[in-house]
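USER: Write out one fold?

ASSISTANT:
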Amino acid sequence: MDNATRILIIDDDRDVWQAFRDVLSPEETEEGTASRRMDSLLGRRPPAVGQAPAFELVFADQGEDGYQKVVEARQEDRPYAVAFVDVRMPPGWDGVKTATAIRATDPAIELVIVTAYADRSREEMVAAIGAPERLLFLRKPFDADELLQMALSLSSKWRLARQEEATRQELASSRARFRDLVETISDFVWEMDSQGRYTYCSPVCSRLFGRSPDELLGQFFSQALLPEVDRQTCHQHLQHCVATGRGYAGLERSCLHADGRTVFVESSAMPVLNERGALIGFRGIDRDITERKREEIARAQLEEQYRQSQKMEALGTLAGGIAHDLNNVLAPIIMSAELIAMGLGPQDPVRDRLRVITESAQRAADLIRQILVFSRKQVLEPKVVDLNRVINAFFKLLRRLMRSDLEIVLELEPELWPVDADVSMMEQVILNLMVNARDAIHGQGRIELRTRNETVEQPIPDVEHRLFAGSFVVLSVTDDGCGMNEAVQARIFDPFFTTKAAGKGTGLGLSTVYGIVTQHGGHLRLVSRPEAGSTFSVYLPRSAHTTQGAEAAIHQVPRGGTETILLVEDNDEVRRMAASTMEAYGYRVLTAVNGAQGLEVFRRNPGLVHLLLTDIVMPQLDGRSLADMVRAERPELPVILMSAYPPDFVAENVAPFPFQFLQKPFRPADLARLLRNVLDQERKGTWMA
């Protein structure tokens, strides 16, 4: 009977007990005995033996006794499915009181009030007992089939309710386990409806996106978390899930944190369908891969920087070679034009034509120096400079580089202080800042280029948060373009960093500006806001000298001399013009086409040579080796090394030497001035100092 449904009969008439046995749990008895007994009570025959279902019947003749049996059954976890309660059971509890107590103890039990007549109406009894959906009435005398059908229906209903409750509890337990699992893993688990609105979000979203589950529930996921540029792509992936009935896995996408940061996730999802195959939503999981993506991005940036550095190194090598050849071409042009001009009268019209030749050649030489600056192959050649004059001379070129829809405003301080600066590098700074301003403006706009004197009394920070104070000449470039947020400003001077599209910028312009300004002992400041434009300010220390004194020194007519100069140069034009220049200034010149011949000429004229002027890179014997060999025989002999290669090439490829250096191309006056200075220092014994 372990699997039998338990039924409790509470009635003070034991004949009624037997009637319930005969109908619900018939026994094999002498033929006719049960029939007659049921006929007397119920008016018909009971079912044949073996047709009735398996019920376990328990009887009580008083209401209190029946109630106690319900309590014990609950304690033993063997509850009754149905209780048939007689409405009148003197002298103890009546059926209503008994049923009410039973209902309070076991709310799930099915109750049947059995009565021939009662002192209360059905409505009163229902109101007293409660739960009318589990309360029926059976009037005596009752039909056997009706009794059996009622017992079968109510016990089935009770079992189904038990199963439903067990299922509900198992589902609740399963959900609790699922929630515990979901809320302890580090991944973000989510569910959405068919429209893409969140219906469940695990608590990880608070850490991952800075938004609590309550903030996300009911929101469209694309609008809540995705950057606008990625929304369409994500919708396409979900539509593909719907079309194929399959999910996706390992899809990488970017999301927005509440504080504006970008968070990278690896997303997997699947469509959720109902029993008819219709889409009712999506279910998925997002894994935080931000750190991995940062490492990948950093690695890619390093690789790109390495490739760029290789390109720059190749460009530097190429630029150095080009500079050497072009400087050797320009040197005789400049010297020839100026030597011819030296022989003409002040009013000779040919002088103007020669001046055009000289200035054009000099601009070509300056252009070469700018290429070398870009390729990091040029060292500083500072002079006392009026920055306004540099800007005015450079402005025509700048204007050609600007778009026609840009208004360029030039505001220069009339009495600007001088600075110690390399002119070509200052031009590079101005050029890069102006081009950067141009590219920050989409459509019509305004760029302002200003200079001013400024005395910084209280220290202020530069872009590297270094405090500085003092007297400065300030060069500023202001645009009304797109501006920058703080994150971009923090990296804007990094080499290879650019906000431009791929192929639109190298990321070297502003880093070059930063490097040049730092080399000049200056500082950079930046003020910018998104959609409000930017102002770059260059602070250059005020020079202790005046431009008038510097220009006077430059334009002072150099003195010549009568000493003997040994000139060693393998380029015929440069050798011929350099010799003519020195002869024009009164010097006696001995020439040689390479180092070996130069050593031979020197040894044929011991004691006659007053100074050695030699190219560095030559066949057979280079200039440095020649200088060492000559100095070994005459340690006091002054030596000037010259080269069309940039100075840092010489520094990298020629061991340190106590010699003067002359960069090609040079003007006749520059050569004459250097010769005179070195020879005069040699006479005083200070030329190597």
Observations:
- Residues 28-38, 40-52, 549-555 have pLDDT under 50 and may be disordered.
- The first strand starts at residue 5 and ends at 10.
- The two ends are 120 Å apart (CA to CA).
